[in-house]
Write a structure and sequence with these properties.
InterPro entries: ClpP/crotonase-like_dom_sf, PDZ_sf, Tail-specific_protease. Pfam families: Peptidase_S41. This is Tail specific protease domain-containing protein. GO terms for molecular function: endopeptidase activity; serine-type peptidase activity. By secondary structure, the chain is of the alpha+beta class. It has two domains: about 60 residues, Pdz3 Domain (Roll); about 210 residues, 2-enoyl-CoA Hydratase, Chain A, domain 1 (Alpha-Beta Complex), CATH 3.90.226. Helix content is about 20%, strand content about 25%. It contains seven helices and 16 strands. The strands form five sheets. A five-stranded mixed sheet has the order 5-6-7-10-11, covered by helices on one side.
């Protein structure tokens, strides 16, 4: 288990980060049987509520058996915000950011306000479980970290479409104001200034699934010469932009599987990001460039 969502059936049952799944409904995770694999793959992503699975985990050499029922869980995009005092008197903030969603904007504003008021000098931004999402939220967070002086008037990302759609090319600036759109509309409900930390350096925790808008944060901060200390797996710089035009009542997500950043060229997205795109039936149509 890489991460356990607070309040989820797994959390209530006492499952912890680091627990190793051994079997589901008496089916070993090492099985090669197609039918058994289908059962295994459906367990982490059930579509029917209250369906129960018996799972066996290994923890510190001992087996732990739990019965879990599928349930709807509202994920917290910013589940942890803490400030620590170093031996030298410096205050170090820690922010766990798990997904770029519309509701995440308010959670990030609240978190950054807390860290600012606590007077942090350094920040550890944990993006290990963040596979991306809404890019304007990435721009806002980058501004909140770096500050207005460093980002004002600068481009956060440039959307570059293929040669058939070049007229749609556009730029996204470092956003300095809140938006907080309603979930049923696209209009912003506020234009209040975002809180800022005005840091010169940030430590960023990454792993294989840190991709897309999370990498936009990293490259956006690189583009304004922030000092970045990356801790974890090396990124492949796989940036992808999505479109979602409605076609015959269905949403078709489109992207170009190539992304160019200011300092690194990546030809293909990482496997984890590419697998997500494949599952959603994504087509090639656009790329983006962070400056």
């Amino acid at each position: 288990m890489a991460f356990v969502e607070g309040g989820s059936p797994s959390a209530v049952a006492g499952i912890e980060r680091g627990d190793e799944l051994v079997n589901v409904n008496d089916i070993s995770v090492d099985t090669n049987d197609r039918g058994e694999l289908t059962t295994l793959l459906s367990a982490p992503n059930p579509t029917v509520p209250d369906v129960r699975y018996r799972m066996v985990f290994r923890r510190a050499g001992k087996l732990l058996t739990v019965d879990l029922a599928a349930a709807k869980v509202v994920a917290d995009s910013v589940p942890v915000v803490q400030t620590f005092s170093g031996a030298d008197g410096q205050k170090i903030g820690y922010l766990l950011f798990n997904e770029h969603t519309v509701p995440a904007e308010l959670r990030l504003i609240t978190a950054v306000t807390q860290l600012r008021d606590e007077g942090i000098n350094e920040l550890a931004l944990d993006l290990r479980y963040n596979q991306g999402g809404v890019v304007y939220v990435a721009s806002q967070l980058a501004t909140m970290i770096a500050g207005i002086k460093r980002t004002e008037g600068k481009t956060f990302a440039t959307y570059l479409f293929n040669d058939k759609r070049a007229a749609k090319n556009s730029e996204l600036s470092f956003l300095a104001t809140a938006c907080l759109p309603s979930l049923t509309g696209s209009r912003c409900s506020t234009t209040a200034p975002l809180p800022t930390l005005d840091l010169r350096r940030v430590y960023i925790l990454t792993q294989e699934s840190t991709c897309s808008a999370s990498e936009a944060i990293i490259n956006g901060l690189r583009g304004v010469d922030m000092e970045l200390v990356l801790i974890g797996e090396r990124l492949v710089e796989s940036l992808m932009a999505f479109l979602a035009p409605k076609t015959a009542g269905s949403l078709i997500f489109q992207l170009n599987t190539r992304a160019v950043t200011r300092r690194v060229l990546a030809i293909m997205p990482r496997a984890s990001c590419r697998a997500q795109a494949s599952r959603r039936g994504i087509l090639k149509a656009a790329e983006w460039r962070t400056t």
